[in-house]
């Protein structure tokens, strides 16, 4: 009996010693500064932003930067919680990474509030100048640059008119808390001119999307959705409401067409992530500096049409658009 107890004690000691060395090895690896550290702060989870992050990670690996092997990748997601956004950005900056990436405007702004020294890469920001992140797109002037996903509104307006030539009233639903969305709406109105009436519907949070959507679809012929993170988070609610009223939705991004929209001329969200990774690597390897690297802005979008949705809504898509659209 005593021998058994003795062996048990010895075994426990060996296990504790092994765990101690394993923990310290892991800790040492996690803080090893011989390989770069990249911090990533994402504002919220929804298909568009998730695709940006996936494209970012995939391109890093394609160029030899794999998490836990050749880089340390510290990913945080605030899930649209402002208090989490603040604490997560503080945590990321306190660890003194080589570079940080903000996916969506609120995340980039939160990181910018924490540091003027560590390079910050913008992952899909519609209006980096209006958001106070850079001095100009051509000459950022500080520690921030990156990728803009400003929607090609002229092409989107032309698409809406080609599919719905008799449209009279277009509704735009957006979050009143996002400066990014207000900027897009102003651009859209300016580009649209008097081609049709535009009604705007602001929501403070995802909890208000259902009620506001019901009001909106009773007053408009179609709905336009800017690249708005709050609306994207509650997008399915909007789609369900619009479908019941037989009202088509023209979103700004490609993934929203697959998730229930009718059509868009949008930017490929995955490729936004790829481009963000490429610019991040350029800074890491010393080929560029944020202050002198222009914000990359896509000039053209890709035409995407949900033909199944068009059939359900009784909308005929012109043949020339079908032939041009990405399948």
UniProtKB/TrEMBL annotation:
Keywords: Membrane, Transmembrane, Transmembrane helix. Pfam families: ABC_sub_bind (PF04392). Gene3D superfamilies: 3.40.50.2300. The chain crosses the membrane at residues 7-23. InterPro entries: ABC_SBP_TrpX-like, ABC_transpt-TYRBP-like, Peripla_BP_I. PANTHER family: ABC TRANSPORTER, SUBSTRATE-BINDING LIPOPROTEIN, ABC TRANSPORTER, SUBSTRATE-BINDING LIPOPROTEIN-RELATED. NCBIfam families: ABC_SBP_TrpX (NF041285). This is Peptide ABC transporter substrate-binding protein. The lineage of its organism: Bacteria, Bacillati, Bacillota, Bacilli, Lactobacillales.
């Amino acid at each position: 009996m005593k021998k058994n107890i003795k062996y048990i004690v010895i075994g426990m000691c060996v296990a504790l010693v092994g765990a101690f060395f394993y923990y310290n090895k892991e800790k040492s690896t996690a803080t090893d500064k011989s390989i770069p550290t990249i911090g990533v702060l994402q504002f919220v989870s929804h298909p568009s932003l998730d695709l940006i992050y996936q494209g970012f990670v995939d391109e890093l690996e394609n160029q030899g930067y794999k998490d836990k092997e050749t880089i340390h990748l510290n990913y945080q997601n605030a899930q649209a919680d402002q208090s989490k956004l603040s604490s997560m950005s503080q945590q990321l900056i306190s660890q003194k990474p080589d570079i940080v990436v903000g996916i969506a405007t609120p995340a980039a702004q939160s990181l910018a509030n924490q540091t003027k020294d560590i390079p910050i890469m913008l992952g899909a920001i519609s209006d980096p100048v209006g958001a106070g992140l850079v001095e100009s797109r051509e000459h950022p002037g500080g520690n921030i640059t990156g990728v803009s996903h400003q929607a090609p509104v002229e092409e989107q307006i032309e698409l809406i008119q080609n599919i719905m030539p008799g449209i009279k009233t277009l509704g735009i639903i957006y979050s009143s808390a996002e400066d990014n969305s207000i900027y897009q709406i102003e651009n859209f109105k300016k580009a649209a001119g008097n081609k049709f009436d535009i009604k705007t519907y602001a929501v403070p949070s995802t909890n208000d999307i259902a009620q506001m959507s019901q009001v909106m679809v009773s007053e408009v012929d179609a709905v336009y959705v800017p690249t708005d993170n709050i609306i994207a988070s509650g997008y399915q609610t909007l789609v369900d409401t619009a479908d019941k009223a037989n009202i088509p939705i023209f979103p700004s991004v490609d993934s929203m067409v697959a998730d229930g929209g009718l059509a868009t001329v949008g930017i490929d969200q995955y490729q936004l992530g790829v481009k963000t990774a490429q610019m991040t690597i350029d800074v890491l390897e010393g080929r560029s500096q944020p202050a002198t690297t222009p914000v990359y802005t896509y000039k053209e979008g890709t035409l995407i049409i949900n033909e199944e949705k068009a059939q359900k809504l009784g909308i005929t898509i012109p043949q020339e658009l079908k032939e041009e659209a990405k399948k």
